[in-house]
Design brief:
elongated; 2 helices; mainly alpha; 54 residues; single chain; 0% strand
């Protein structure tokens, strides 16, 4: 799951570098990857979602 987040961020950087007019899409992908990482961290350290394995 972490690799998927890394791939999404790499795609966002590629979009910003090659197609600057798609900046909003790249920002949306970056925010999605960040929220996904935050969810995985929260699932790992909290007692609300015990034993979550993504």
């Amino acid at each position: 799951m972490e690799f998927l987040g890394l791939v999404i961020v790499i795609i966002a950087v590629f979009l910003i570098y090659k197609k600057p007019e798609k900046e909003n899409l790249a920002f949306g992908l970056f925010v999605f990857a960040w929220v996904m990482a935050a969810f995985m961290y929260y699932g790992h350290v909290s007692a609300l979602l015990p034993n979550i394995s993504l």
